[in-house]
Design a protein that fits this description.
Layout: E1 3-6, E2 11-14, E3 20-23, E4 26-28, H1 35-40, E5 47-59, H2 65-71, E6 76-78, E7 83-90, E8 103-111, H3 117-121, H4 141-154, H5 157-165, E9 170-176, E10 183-184, E11 187-189, H6 204-221, H7 225-256, H8 261-269, H9 273-279
Parallel strand pairs: 4-11
Antiparallel strand pairs: 1-2, 2-3, 5-8, 5-9, 6-7, 7-8, 10-11
The protein binds flavin-adenine dinucleotide (FAD).
Flavin-adenine dinucleotide (FAD) is lined by residues 1, 29-31, 35, 55, 172, 191-193, 202-206, 208.
Length: 286
C-alpha cells in the first residue's frame, strides 16, 4: 500500500504496482509503526519512555526446585532499588497448560538512556544500529552478559535464575503514543496504530480488540458510515488516551531513574510494593 485517500463517498487504496482499490471504509490496524498514521498525522511520534523491558521465557522443568516452589505458580514481583521485574506462568510449547509443560515469563524494566545506553543495546556485532528494534538473535553477547550479571547481582536469586536461564532473552524499548483522533474521513486507525500504552497495565491486546468490537458495534448501529465512525472516534479516542495515561502513571517511577536524586527520591516515595502490586495488570475500567 503506497497511498490511501478518503473521498466523500468512498476511500481509495493505491498499491505499489499501480492498482487502485475502492472501499467504503479503510481500517489501518498496522501496528505501532503504522505507516498510514505517519502519513495522516506526521507530527505524532512514538515517545521513548526512558526504559526498556527485558523479556524471556523459561521452561518450568528447567527451573530448580527451590525457584519453582518460590515463584512458579505466582504472579511475582521483585523491586530492588531502581529496578522492577515481574513474572508469571504462561502456556508452554503447543499452548500447553499441563503441569510440567508450561513456561515462566519475566518482564524486567530497566532505565536506559535514550542517547547513550539504548543505541548501544540496539547495535549488533557488525556495528549496525537497529533503531526500530533489534531481533533477539542479533543482540550482542556482551550486552547479554552485562544483563545477566546485573540479574545475578541486583535481583532476588529466584529471579536471577529465571533471567539467566531464559534461552532467548529480548528487550523492547518502551514508548508512549497518542493520537488526537482515530478517524479521518473514511479511514479509521485501530489498536497500536492509534495508541500505544506501556506494558504495565497489560492492555495492548485488549485495547486493540476493544477498538475492533466498538467499530463493529458502531457500524451496526448507524446506516451512515460517517455517523458510525464519529461514534467510534468519540468513544475509543477517549479510552485509548485513558489507558496510555494510566500506564504512564504506573511507569513514572522507572522514568525517574535517569533524573536527578530529588526526582528519584520523590518517585521512590510512591513506589511501594503494595501500590505496584495493586495496579499492575489488574482489570480497570476505561
Ligand atoms: C515484546 C512484546 C510483548 C507484548 N506482550 C503483551 C502482553 O503480554 N499482553 C498484551 O496485551 N499486549 C502485549 N504486547 C502489546 C501487543 O502486542 C500489542 O498491543 C498488540 O499486538 C496490538 O495489536 P494491533 O493489531 O494493533 O497491532 P499488531 O499486533 O502490531 O499488528 C499489526 C500488523 O500489521 C502488519 N503490518 C504493519 N505494516 C504493514 C504494512 N505496511 N502492510 C501490511 N501489514 C502491515 C504487521 O505485520 C502486523 O501483523 C506486547 C508487545 C511486545 C512488543
Amino acid at each position: 500500500v503506497v497511498a490511501v485517500t478518503s473521498e466523500e463517498d468512498h476511500a481509495s487504496v493505491t498499491l505499489s504496482d499501480g492498482t487502485r482499490l475502492s472501499a467504503n471504509l479503510v481500517i489501518a490496524a498496522d501496528g505501532f509503526r503504522s505507516s498510514l498514521r505517519e502519513r495522516l498525522l506526521p507530527d505524532v511520534t512514538l515517545r521513548y519512555a526512558g526504559y526498556v523491558a527485558w523479556r524471556g521465557l523459561v521452561d518450568e522443568r528447567d527451573l530448580s526446585k527451590a525457584t519453582w516452589d518460590a515463584l512458579f505458580e505466582k504472579f511475582a514481583f521483585c523491586l530492588p532499588a531502581h529496578e522492577q521485574i515481574l513474572g508469571y506462568p504462561v502456556a508452554g510449547p503447543g499452548n500447553s497448560t499441563r503441569a510440567g509443560e508450561r513456561r515462566y515469563n519475566f518482564v524486567w524494566y530497566r532505565a536506559t538512556s535514550e542517547h547513550g545506553a539504548l543505541p548501544n543495546l540496539l547495535t549488533d556485532a557488525t556495528g549496525k544500529l537497529h533503531a526500530n528494534g533489534i531481533a533477539p538473535h542479533l543482540i550482542r553477547a556482551d550486552v547479554l552478559a552485562d544483563m545477566e550479571e546485573a540479574a545475578l547481582t541486583l535481583l532476588a536469586p529466584q529471579f536471577g535464575e529465571v533471567v539467566t536461564k531464559a534461552p532467548v532473552p529480548l528487550f523492547q524499548p518502551i514508548y508512549d503514543l497518542e493520537v488526537p483522533r482515530m478517524v479521518f474521513g473514511r479511514i479509521a486507525l485501530l489498536g497500536d496504530a492509534a495508541f500505544v500504552a506501556r506494558p504495565h497495565c497489560g492492555m495492548g491486546v485488549t485495547k486493540a480488540a476493544g477498538d475492533a468490537m466498538a467499530l463493529v458495534t458502531a457500524l451496526g448501529r448507524h446506516d451512515s458510515i460517517h455517523a458510525a465512525l464519529a461514534d467510534f472516534d468519540a468513544a475509543r479516542t477517549q479510552t485509548g488516551a485513558a489507558i496510555v495515561q494510566h500506564a504512564r502513571h504506573l511507569g513514572a517511577y522507572m522514568q525517574a531513574q535517569l533524573k536527578d536524586e530529588t526526582d528519584r527520591e520523590m518517585a521512590e516515595r510512591y513506589r511501594t510494593p503494595e501500590a505496584v502490586m495493586r495496579e499492575t495488570a489488574v482489570p480497570a475500567r476505561f
